[in-house]
């Protein structure tokens, strides 16, 4: 399975949002990762429906929307209308996770479940059949530019084994501190989708940076 790259628009220059989205359109990125933070589930606030809609107006790549919010069920339909094609909710934020994932799929979106660094991936065993993608946080969610947590690599291996044993095609997405040094280790362990924010947008040549991540051997 080829590696998919999902640059995080949270690290973009918001004064030139259209230009940044058009750059991603011209790149080898597979998705545009959209981080939604409410200041409650995580200690930061990002943006909501209007900005998501603005991104969608210019995007030629699917929007991979990551909801770092409490009670995400209240907003699933709105984010679908705003342009989300993949919606990931946090295991830690959902009381009835199975129902939430089914709701996402009923909207015609791919369903993802995200887990924080401290959450054992074994907690996902009973809902993997309902999930198109598992998003493993490799930093504590809330802020960009954090240092990658090395234990993530062993979590990827265990999750990849669980998925294979069930005969599923569930994607494994990694979000947080991904760079040229740890990306090969993550892919070798079984990761399929790499989210990169600061590493892409702070580079001298973001399109080349995305290309290099995409073509890891």
UniProtKB/TrEMBL annotation:
Known cofactor(s): Fe(2+); Mn(2+); a divalent metal cation; Co(2+)
InterPro entries: Aldolase_TIM (IPR013785), Ribul_P_3_epim (IPR026019), Ribul_P_3_epim-like (IPR000056), RibuloseP-bd_barrel (IPR011060)
UniProt family annotation: Belongs to the ribulose-phosphate 3-epimerase family.
Record's protein name: Ribulose-phosphate 3-epimerase
Active site feature: 35, 175
Protein's organism: Cecembia calidifontis
Binding site for substrate: 8, 66, 142-145, 175-177
Pfam families: Ribul_P_3_epim (PF00834)
Cofactor stoichiometry and binding remark: Binds 1 divalent metal cation per subunit.
Top-level taxonomic group: Bacteria
Reactions catalysed: D-ribulose 5-phosphate = D-xylulose 5-phosphate
Keywords: Carbohydrate metabolism, Cobalt, Isomerase, Manganese, Metal-binding, Zinc
EC numbers: 5.1.3.1
Pathway(s) this gene product operates in, as recorded in its UniProt entry: Carbohydrate degradation
Cellular component per GO, a single term: cytoplasm
């Amino acid at each position: 399975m080829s590696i998919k790259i999902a640059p995080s628009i949270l690290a973009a220059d918001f004064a030139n949002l259209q230009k940044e989205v058009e750059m991603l359109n011209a790149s080898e990125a597979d998705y545009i990762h959209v981080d939604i933070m409410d200041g409650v589930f995580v200690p930061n606030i990002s943006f909501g429906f209007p900005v998501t809609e603005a991104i969608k107006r210019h995007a030629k790549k699917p929007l991979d929307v990551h909801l770092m919010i409490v009670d995400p069920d209240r907003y699933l339909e709105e984010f679908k209308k705003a342009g989300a094609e993949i919606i990931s909710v946090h295991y830690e934020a959902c009381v009835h996770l199975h129902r939430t994932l089914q709701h996402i799929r009923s909207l015609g979106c791919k369903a993802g479940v995200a887990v924080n660094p401290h959450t054992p991936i074994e907690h996902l065993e009973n809902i993997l059949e309902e999930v198109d993608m598992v998003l493993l946080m490799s930093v504590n969610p809330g802020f960009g530019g954090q240092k990658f947590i090395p234990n993530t690599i062993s979590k990827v291996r265990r999750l990849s084994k669980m998925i294979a044993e069930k005969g599923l095609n569930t994607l494994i997405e990694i979000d947080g501190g991904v760079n040229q040094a740890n990306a090969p280790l993550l892919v070798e362990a079984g990761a399929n989708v790499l989210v990169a924010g600061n590493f892409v947008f702070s580079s001298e040549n973001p399109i080349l940076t995305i290309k290099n991540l995409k073509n890891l051997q």
